[in-house]
Amino acid sequence: MEVYLIYYHYYQYFFIFNFQFIYNIRNTLQQSFIYSFIFIYQNIFFIILIQFFIKFILYINYQFYQIFSSFFPQLIKYQYLNSSNKIGLIGAPNIGSGLGKCINLSNLILILNCNNIGDEGSSGLGSGLGKCTNLSNLTLNLQNNNIGAIGALGLGSGLGKCTNLSNLILNLDHNNIGDEGVSGLFSGLRQCINLSNIELYFCNNNIGEIGALGIGSGLGKYTNLSNLTLNLYNNNIGGIGASGLGYNIGKCTNLSELKLNVLKNNIGEIGSSGIGSGLVNCINLQNLTLFFYCKEININQQFKVKCLKSKRLVVLNINYW
């Protein structure tokens, strides 16, 4: 706080001095020039004031997360929606640190889209959330935050300590976690064996076949999983990745509802057939929604996918684009 007060007073005295200087030489300068000079200084002064207030607000915002937990140690449910506010790599760990002190927190909705938190911010946030050991329901939106492999690994490592999680919604659309990042994420998340409802959004993340296999391997560990939404739009998992994904999802025998989006992934006929073969093993599946790219599947493959319809399958939606 003192830094900002000093910053303000420095410019205040700077402008007082310069206006006094102008006043002293008023007899030697043209009146029009004086007015122009004053006008310019006024504009500069207001710009600096605006910058000061922006920095002051951000400073208060960061400090809030450091102290708010001490006022709410018994907090059970917290919802915070904050998009595009330049929280950055410093603010995100502060949020995590504050939330980590809320030891009774069980329900959390945290939306930090478009804040450029990066790898450091994501890891710091995950570290803080990992201290919320009673967390059972988590919605975490981190779209478009310049998160890479290291950030995804750190986030997964932290969330993996939340072993009481039963419902998870994680949105990492429009980052760049890649194969290494998504595999690292699941290396931590696979510790959350009590998960029954999962929604994962990994659109535009440069995920290839190795990453798809990592996702599948992680999901296959959740024996209690009943509802799964997985959006991999516009990656490059290919036929092998899609087949491996389908095979591992097939291990989730308690799965009753599945939404799977593999549009723009170059899965081809091999991938679509592999997904179909794997999902046959989900014997309790009742609701199935698939998103395929029509150019990747010929008529025969479409029929193979439709053959998944069984006595238990009540709703089957296959969307072609």
TrEMBL record:
InterPro entries on file: LRR_dom_sf (IPR032675), RanGap (IPR027038)
Signal peptide limits: none
SMART domains named in the record: LRR_RI
Residues passing through the membrane, by range: 6-25, 37-60
One GO CC term on file: perinuclear region of cytoplasm
Keywords: GTPase activation, Leucine-rich repeat, Membrane, Repeat, Transmembrane, Transmembrane helix
Domain of life: Eukaryota
Record-level GO BP terms: nucleocytoplasmic transport
GO MF term list: GTPase activator activity; small GTPase binding
PANTHER family: RAN GTPASE-ACTIVATING PROTEIN 1
Name this protein carries in UniProt: Transmembrane protein, putative
